[in-house]
Each structure stands twice: as C-alpha cells, then as structure tokens.
Design goal:
By secondary structure, the protein is an alpha+beta fold. The radius of gyration is 16 Å and the shape is globular. A three-stranded antiparallel sheet has the order 1-2-3. It has four helices and three strands; from the N terminus they run ββαααβα. The chain has a domain at 3-87: Aspartate Aminotransferase, domain 1 (Alpha-Beta Complex), CATH 3.90.1150.
C-alpha cells in the first residue's frame, strides 16, 4: 500500500510538476481521522528522526497584520485551511534513496498507527 492509498493523507498536486520548484514537499493531513493532532504527529515523526515543519502561517495569524488591519481568519479561509492541514516533509538534494524510503515508510506507518479504526475502512 502506497501513500495514495492512505485515507486522510493528500499528496501535492502533480499537475504542478512542471511549474513548481519543489523546494518543499508539503502533504495535507486530515486530523479529524486520527487520534492525535498535528503536533502529536510531528512529535511521533521526530522520535523516528524525521524533522518536519509547518510553512506559511496565514496572514491572519501574524500579529502585525492583525493589529494594523484588524484582519481575521474568516477573510482568508483558503490560507487557514492550508495551514490547518499542511505539513512539510524532508526534501533536499543530498537525500539518498534509502533516506527517502525511510521517510516514506515512517510517515505511512505512523499515519496508519494514529488512524481512528473507522477511518481505515475503505
């Protein structure tokens, strides 16, 4: 079973393969299907030696814009949804094939491990 078969894990859009610089590999995760939140999943991966990151905090979460322009999340629903579900995984030029395989395996195993039982049913 590959990542495309994991419920609640959405891969980047391959339609952008020719136009993206692919400096980040950002997956989207539906944590309503799991027993933990993103921070818990980040910690699980960290314990296996995999560092992750959340990129691109919505403008509505940045204090300067909140105070200067009185903005809120309702004005940026797409950015807020991206932030809520996004997680950047390791991707860099010196990753070996075995590094890539390790990340693939650990993400899949840890995602399956935190799925609510009813979420695994196809």
């Amino acid at each position: 079973m590959g990542w495309k078969d994991l419920p609640g894990l959405t891969l980047p859009n391959l339609a952008h393969l020719q136009t993206s610089a692919w400096h980040l590999f950002c997956v989207h995760l539906d944590f309503t299907m799991t027993t933990i939140d993103r921070e818990g999943f980040v910690e699980r991966l960290k314990q296996t030696g995999i560092g992750t990151q959340v990129h691109y905090f919505p403008v509505s979460h940045q204090p300067f814009y909140q105070h200067r322009y009185q903005i809120n999340d309702s004005q940026f629903p797409g950015a807020v949804e991206h932030y809520r579900t996004a997680l950047s995984l390791p991707m860099f030029p010196s990753m070996s094939d075995s590094d890539i395989d390790f990340v693939l395996r650990q993400v899949a195993e840890n995602w399956r491990a935190v799925m609510k039982p009813h979420s695994l049913v196809a």
